[in-house]
Design brief:
The chain is 41% helix and 17% strand. The protein contains 14 helices and 13 strands. Strand 1, helix 1 and strand 2 form a beta-alpha-beta unit. Helix 5 packs parallel to helix 7. The protein starts with 11 loop residues before the first strand and ends with a helix.
Amino acid sequence: MNQADPDAMSHNILVLGAGELGLPVLRSLAQRAKDIDGVKISVLLRASAVVSSSPGKQHDIAEIRGLGIEIVIGDLVKSSIDELVAVFGQYDTVIGCAGYAAGIDTPMKLARAALLARIPRYFPWQFGVDFDLIGRGSPQDIFDAQLDVRELLRGQHQTEWVIISTGMFMSYLFEPEFGVVDLKENAVHALGSLDTAVTLTTPDDIGALTAEIVFAQPRIRNEIVYLAGDTVTYGEVADKLQAALGHPFSRSEWSEEFLLGELARDPHNMMRKYRAAFAQGRGVAWDKSGTFNSHRALPVTDVASWINANLISGRNE
């Protein structure tokens, strides 16, 4: 990729991971690449994932190969930075989709490897909230680690970077473990207040929009790009559930003070860290009208549509 040419685009792309986000990103990149000459998509996976006997893993590997994507064996956690540099250096673009399961130190490790490899373009794993607005010292310490990555990337001018802010994965809001939506009790527990807002985007939409961002011309570089499937208050979530499912939902507020107290009693609980951080309402929501998908009139899934597809359609089949 010729960085001096603003119309030059990524051609040799490595995606890190093929999980909840990585697989949608790979699908969309492969689809877009059909229309562009000379684009090659690869994915870095652990050897254990490639040879796994799990039917789900086998299905994913077969799909990846069917898309014409090359599988590269590697381990983001166990590999040294030098080993990662050797891999990354073969590509002009690296897109991090490994998520937080790889550990709190991995985002910085990958960013350093990307810079040492002198790759032209890097998309770090920052698919989430606006860490700049949240600032340091939030209840979720992973966010501080992500700010460290931003500072590293902003402090150099050799590798272009693109950060994609997506808000929360939409399905996560409805996870029983998260505790916000309780479908068994027909209840919504608002983080902070019923008027606190949150931005939500589905992984499938993030995958499609990421592919659009990767191949956009003129090339997007050294920029934070905002996406949003929907931005809603917790009160509006209760309204939408009630309208779609046809029965009342009770509403209660888990205040920031209450959630910080819960976290203090269990300071290593990841879920409690997230709840307390989102309750503060800072950097977790933005106006959908100002997003990349809105500016380009690209279709996305809103909360009402997600509820209909996942909570209603399945019941009727």
